[in-house]
Design brief:
heterodimer, A: alpha+beta, disordered N terminus, B: alpha/beta, Alkaline Phosphatase, subunit A, 2 domains, nine-stranded mixed sheet, three-stranded antiparallel sheet, 32% helix
Chain lengths: 905, 495
């Protein structure tokens, strides 16, 4: 808090002022003697210091002061001169003139355009203080404050910024390196010479086919494809491989997913009030539109136009392009309209133009030539557009123009109640040569699409080419792929970006052309191993003297695992699937259901693009939770089983009479060889072979996973005076989450005897005590605690007895209270029952009880925690666990976890 | 996107360079140069990112959770945030207002401030207040056990937020921004500090029986890497495999898994040999060892049955006691930030039957909170652990009017109130036995020394060793921070 703030609160002052006679606070008329003048000055000062300044500090300085680092609307109210000078709308205070003083207008809340403070109208008495102050001449002793030092660099003309110039083709250098296959290679090679570096050797063919197949399809090459390419002697083998991969349907799946990061794709709308439906109806149609048109190589400029304005280009949806509008409508639906529009402005400007226009929501952009009027020009466009509502629309993702599109006024400081000048709907001003022309077609979305997809736009192609380069080379040329603003430096090889962008446009915006050109360069095909010299001269590989080793993203990693296990479904498109559920179809990860409100942990752990906002680049963290998923998830364990089984089938199919018998040492050798070829697409080295064979020759531990649910039984039994449990009879019936004697309840024979997850009711007498029985699945040390609660004051309560074999561990009578055993420790043998017996303690009236039984079983280093509530299931719901992994399956899992599987050289 | 930049840590080759030159020369991949070594003179990661051109990717690759030093010496190393979601009433807990009796049933003299729903006459507190400790701070009977440690506590009676609605106020309290998607405070702090125990998640959000409203957005990482997001734990569960995802294995015995990971490491070494200079290969190898250890350590950390009986008795029975005790076990093991939510939905949102409901809710947690403070203190952990208590806002001192479909036929509850409410902090460098600020006569509006949520955040960051204006992350064209363009450190709260 500012230090000059008086300790006296306004309320205290008002009380004092009332006591002292408020008449003295009336404006003073005329001037008499000097003494009176001084007295008047003092009164004005007192009035200002105790009444006016605290109001300004409290309600205005947050947004209008130097100290708090802000001057919204270019207005500061923290010194006298600044206050009189005012802000973008004119003087805040004109001494003696209530009408001209905008401060007063704002606090009165009379004008719909100017209402301050934004958090709510001041109290009437507070407004009156300000009125009196202005009316009486606005005495203001505050000294001028220093201006903040400008930390911005010398203001070069932003129009000169490299990224705002139209990209041009690059002439080839005079000396062309031998390795060069493209003018780009020659340009880079020339620059490397200046740094005493040279281009790296091309990667070996095995590496190259794997790299290329992942980059173009997101999947590993088949073993046959690898061998074919390695063996091929055709000079055009590589180009042919490129063409076949570009033509494969998996290309569209891979490249659609890249674009989905840009488009903040999700299948739900986000948070909703009162549990309203969250599914974003038709989301998958946008994803499928992308897959279809990446495969069909729809030119990028057309993709842009459809994504922004298909309602004008394919109004009836005859060509299916209305689904493209998911780009705009697939974002989070915020609770406020302003924020939903903000999200759309952001995805369009950062996603397509590499301009951070959303920074200009509250004030002119701090660095880039983007004024708030640019932001509100686009706001007006989207505010004049509407999305389809209702469940029956055939085009759930469509956006259309409203009937009467209109411009909006700037929201000063982003506050909707605080209107500034009108911002005509038009394009981002820095990208227009002259004064921007207002948009004329409906909302202006169509005009916006045309301006972005215009060959004369210097950013659109550059931004896209940079993204594609990044996906293929592992690192974009411009490090901030969604920010090409004035603070963004020209990349190390500007010619690469410019030449690709210029020719991309000339080639009709063909993505496949672009990908093809890049992967045919020597730059793309270089090996990734770094020499000492390279590490010293260019550790970050900015100069591109070698390839970049890359880690598979989550989609590619999971898809590859499914390929290896032999289960990947290749169907294109369709409803999203919940990949974290047990019985999910083995589809590619691009089809995973993405719930943006409850994103599964595994998505987060593996750095998937956040569906909440446009993602320029994915993070690539390494954390143990990723390893836990690969070690322990049901998905990973099943993939290990399936992969080993597929290898065994393969061996069986190729077996001859001379084949070694299954399980023999020679068979292990064949297994290791076949498994390596299946998982890593190569034969193992001698060293690897001996490690792997030694591993599979050891027997696996006798491992049976603990089945928590099956450890429990529910029934009745006789409890004798010695605490011996006999004649245990399981309940024959289960319904409504309750074990009982039969469908009829109370049951003629079993009475009220019943057990639920949280308690139950004893039957009558000691022969019908209810028993919650736990059978030790392993021998070990047990720590057990039981509690029984009988809240009812009526009746005589229930008796609980905890029995292990012959021994009574604890007993207690609960009646209008809770009885607890505390923590007991005891050794158990495998198969030994531990019973929590509850009997009626005499009479069966009012004997409903709740109970809890927690058991921790320690076997060597491992603990198993059982709990009566967590583990409770009906008889039909108990699913036995899968068997443990044998040694070969364990080996398969190890290869699926290996660095070689997870990285692409 | 993965970058292939790296170095194997040729320290010697960098001798005599400035930090900046060294980073340039030795590469941003910095395999062998552990990030905390680079930052050994107290420079924060954020500052390094800004000042040294450390790339996001180098942060990603270097163990994003490696422990790091903040801007200046920290008073607190860990946070336990006890979130009373729904909004507890300040005039019934930590802000005694005798004037409520005087005006009981009458119109509030200053008029009612605008809140979410229509409100009526002044409603006195049904709970008794009395002074506690040497400081003599008055606390209501609802938190009598907590109040036994009042001399460790700074009560802030002048909190304020922006609006009287749950969703934006939860977002404001957790992320400093009501509407847009931004990282939560726990994410910011794990980004800034890393964590001391790699075998446990750095930031854990516990809520029994489901999510609070706004769900996982309350602990979201926003634009920070996903690893900084809070790990949600349903603390009504007891079994470890339901508490932490994939932490148990149903396919291999522990000893087989050990052998399997040994084989994996051996195969990875074979792979690594011709691929020197790539720290990511090494860190992925290490991540399997960390994961292996996490399996036993996490199970152990969440297992309160390992506590001696007198500790279990101190915390008392029930889910609140268990999760608050787990919180202590977690910070004891180095977890950076633990958020403990009272329950799914918004349990403290008592628009009606406030007396009975507040009594029941406080009854569930007071003993355990009191136990936590004493337990932390006796273990010497309180000085390093910042305990924060509060909701997303408070409640009105005036009664809420009955409304069809919600509190129909009842006039015994209080509406939301963002104009003024109470929170408290203890431990971790907080000035104990201190009351900061005041509301008006009735407890409606914060009047003296008002503390906005942004100010609270700035103060918490200060206690954790950060200048809130310098803990930043570059995103979408600018450097973002928890407090955005706001926030003043309340120095009086710091001992």
């Amino acid at each position: 808090m500012p230090t000059h703030r008086p300790a006296m609160t306004l309320r205290m002052f008002l009380i004092l002022a009332t006591l002292l006679g408020a008449a003295r606070l009336e404006p003073l008329a005329g001037r008499a003697g000097a003494a009176e003048a001084i007295a008047a000055d003092r009164q004005e000062e007192a009035f200002f210091e105790s009444r006016v300044r605290p109001l300004l500090v409290e309600h205005c300085y947050d947004c209008h002061s130097l100290e708090l680092g802000d001057s919204s609307g270019d207005l500061r109210l923290d010194d006298a001169a600044a206050t009189r000078r005012g802000g973008s709308r004119g003087p805040a205070v004109v001494p003696g003139d209530e009408q001209q003083s905008l401060l007063l207008t704002a606090v009165k809340y009379d004008s719909p355009d100017l209402q301050m403070p934004p958090e709510g109208k001041l109290a009437d008495e507070e407004i009156e203080v300000l009125r009196q102050w202005i009316a009486s001449g606005a005495y203001d002793p505050r000294e001028p404050l220093e201006h903040e030092p400008e930390d911005a660099e010398p203001a070069a003309d932003p129009r000169e910024h490299w990224a705002f110039q139209l990209p041009e083709r690059t002439p080839p250098p005079q000396v062309v390196a031998d390795s060069a296959r493209d003018v780009l290679d020659a340009v880079v090679a020339e620059r490397l010479t200046e740094h005493q570096l040279a281009p790296a050797e091309p990667a070996d063919r095995r590496t190259l086919v794997r790299r290329l197949t992942y980059d173009l399809t997101g999947l590993p090459p088949s073993e046959a494809a690898v061998e074919r390419f390695v063996a091929s002697e055709r000079p055009d083998a590589y180009a042919r491989l490129v063409d076949s991969l570009l033509a494969s349907p998996e290309f569209g799946e891979r490249w659609a997913r890249h674009w989905m990061d840009v488009a903040r794709y999700a299948d739900t709308i986000g948070y909703t009030l009162a549990g309203r439906e969250r599914r974003l109806r038709g989301s998958e149609r946008y994803r499928d539109w992308l897959i279809r048109h990446y495969n069909g190589d729809l030119p990028y400029d057309e993709m842009i136009r459809y994504q922004l304005a298909a309602d004008r280009l394919d109004p009836e949806g005859e060509q299916g392009h209305l689904d493209a509008m998911g780009f705009l409508t697939i974002g989070r639906r915020f609770l406020s309209k302003h924020d939903t529009i903000d999200d759309r402005i952001d995805v369009v400007t950062r996603g397509l133009l590499g301009l951070t226009v959303a920074c200009a929501r509250c004030h002119d952009h701090k660095f880039d030539p983007v004024p708030t009027t640019d932001y509100y020009a686009l706001y007006g466009v989207f505010n004049s557009s509407q999305t389809e509502e209702g469940d029956d629309s055939p085009w759930p993702l469509r956006m259309t123009d409203i009937e009467k599109p209109q411009d909006v006024r700037v929201f000063v400081r982003g506050q909707a109640g605080n209107r500034g000048p009108v911002a005509p709907r038009q394009f981002v001003s820095i990208l227009e040569d002259a004064t921007p022309e207002p948009f004329t077609t409906g909302s202006g979305r169509f005009d916006l699409a045309m301006r972005i997809a215009d060959p004369a736009n210097p950013l659109t192609a550059r931004v896209y080419v940079n993204r594609v380069w990044g996906h293929l080379l592992g690192r974009p040329l411009v490090d901030t792929p969604s920010d090409f603003g004035v603070r963004t430096e020209r990349p190390a090889h500007p010619e690469l970006l410019d030449d690709l962008a210029a020719e991309f446009v000339a080639q009709g915006y063909s993505t496949k052309w672009l990908v093809r050109r890049i992967v045919l360069t020597h730059l793309y095909q270089q090996r990734s191993r770094a020499s000492e010299r390279q590490m010293q001269a260019d550790p970050e590989n900015r100069l591109l003297a070698r390839g970049n080793r890359r880690r598979l993203g989550f989609e590619a990693l999971r898809d590859s695992t499914l390929v290896v296990s032999g289960h990947l479904q290749r169907t294109l498109g369709g409803e999203p699937v919940k990949i974290t559920e047990a019985s999910t179809p083995p589809r590619r990860t691009v089809y995973a259901f993405i719930d943006r409100q409850q994103l599964p942990g595994v998505f987060r752990v593996f750095d998937l693009a956040s569906p909440d906002a446009h993602t320029p680049e994915r993070h690539a963290t390494t954390v143990p939770q990723q390893a836990l998923y690969l070690m322990n998830s049901p998905f990973a364990l099943q993939a290990a089983r399936d992969s080993a089984a597929a290898v065994e089938r393969e061996l069986a199919a190729s077996a001859t009479d001379n084949s070694p018998p299954s399980g023999s040492a020679d068979d292990a050798e064949r297994f290791v060889e076949a498994l390596y070829r299946r998982v890593l697409r190569r034969s193992p080295s001698d060293r690897e072979r001996s490690l792997a064979e030694a591993f599979v020759r050891e027997p696996a531990d006798d491992f049976e996973p603990v089945d928590y649910q099956s450890a429990w039984q529910y029934g009745i039994a006789t409890l004798d005076e010695q605490g011996t449990v006999s004649e245990f009879q399981p309940f024959p019936h289960f319904s409504e989450n309750r074990y009982a004697g039969g469908e009829k309840f109370p049951h003629p024979e079993w009475g009220y005897a019943s057990l639920t997850s949280r308690g139950g009711h004893p039957g009558g007498g000691r022969k019908r005590a209810v028993v919650r029985r736990w059978i030790a699945p392993r021998g070990g040390r047990v720590e057990v605690s039981a509690s029984v609660n009988h809240p009812n004051p009526k009746g005589d309560g229930v008796r609980a007895t905890l029995v292990l074999g012959e021994a009574v561990l604890w007993s207690g009578v609960a009646h209008e209270n809770r009885q607890s055993s505390g923590s007991l420790q005891v050794d158990v043998a495998a198969g030994q029952p531990l019973d929590l017996v509850v009997d009626d303690n005499g009479t069966t009236s009012f004997d409903g009880f709740s109970s809890e039984l927690a058991i921790r079983l320690d076997v060597e280093q491992t603990s198993y925690a059982f709990h009566s509530q967590d583990d409770f299931r009906g008889p039909g719901d108990r699913r036995g666990p899968k068997p443990g992994l044998n040694r070969r399956e364990q080996l398969a899992q190890a290869l699926l976890m290996s660095n070689e599987f997870a990285f692409v050289d | 996107m993965n970058h292939d930049s790296s170095s194997d840590g040729h320290h010697s080759g960098c001798g005599g360079y400035t930090r900046r030159q060294m980073l340039r020369a030795c590469g941003m991949g910095i395999g062998g140069l552990a990030l905390h070594e680079l930052l050994a003179d107290g420079q924060s990661v954020a500052a390094a990112v800004a000042e040294n051109g450390l790339t996001r990717n180098s942060l990603d690759q270097n163990g994003p959770l490696a422990p790091r030093e903040p801007h200046f010496p920290a008073r607190a190393k860990h946070v336990i945030h006890l979130f009373m979601n729904g909004g507890p009433s300040q005039v019934d807990t930590f802000d005694p207002k005798p004037a409520l009796e005087k005006f009981a049933g009458k119109t509030a003299p200053g008029g009612n401030l605008k809140t979410e729903r229509p409100t009526g006459a002044v409603m006195p507190s049904p709970f008794k207040f009395r002074p506690y400790g040497e400081s003599g701070i008055e606390v209501s009977e609802l938190f009598a056990k907590t109040a036994e440690s009042i001399d460790e506590i700074a009560v802030i009676r002048s909190m304020r937020a922006d609006v009287p609605n749950h969703e934006p106020s939860l977002m404001l309290m957790n992320t400093g921004e009501s509407r847009l998607v931004r990282p939560s405070m726990g994410s910011w702090l794990t980004y800034g500090l890393g964590t001391e125990n790699q075998n446990l998640p750095a930031f854990i959000a516990m809520c029994p029986g489901g999510y609070p409203i706004k769900e996982t957005q309350n602990w979201q990482a926003g634009f920070l890497p996903g690893v900084y997001q809070g790990t949600y734990v349903d603390s009504s569960q007891t079994r470890i495999d339901r508490l932490i995802e994939h932490v148990t294995n149903d396919g291999l015995s522990r000893s087989d898994q050990r052998e399997q990971l040994d084989l994996l490491a051996a195969l990875n070494r074979v792979h690594q040999e011709p691929r020197e200079h790539d720290p990511r290969l090494e860190s992925r190898i290490q991540s399997f060892e960390l994961a292996y250890r996490m399996q036993s350590e996490a199970a152990e950390a969440f297992d309160v049955s390992r506590e001696p009986q007198h500790i279990l008795d101190l915390y008392g029975p029930g889910t609140q006691a268990r999760q608050i005790l787990i919180a202590r076990r977690l910070v004891e093991r180095g977890v950076r930030y633990v958020q403990v939510w009272h329950g799914a939905g918004q349990p403290w949102d008592n628009h009606d039957d406030l007396e009975a409901r507040h009594r029941a809710l406080a009854g569930e947690c007071d003993q355990a909170i009191g136990a936590l403070l004493k337990d932390l203190k006796q273990r010497g952990l309180l000085k390093d652990t910042l305990v924060i208590w509060g909701g997303e806002f408070g409640r009105t001192p005036v009664v809420e009017m009955p409304k069809e479909g919600s509190n129909q036929g009842k006039m015994n509850g209080r509406d939301h109130n963002h104009h003024g409410f109470s929170m408290w902090m203890a431990g971790g460098g907080v000035r104990g036995g201190y009351v900061h600020g005041a509301t008006d006569e009735l407890g409606f509006r914060a009047e003296e020394n008002r503390v906005h949520v942004h100010d609270l955040h700035a103060t918490i960051l200060k206690l954790m060793g950060f200048d809130h204006k310098r803990l930043t992350f570059p995103y979408a064209g600018r450097d973002f921070r928890l407090t955005d363009v706001h926030g003043n450190v309340i120095e009086e709260l710091i001992a």
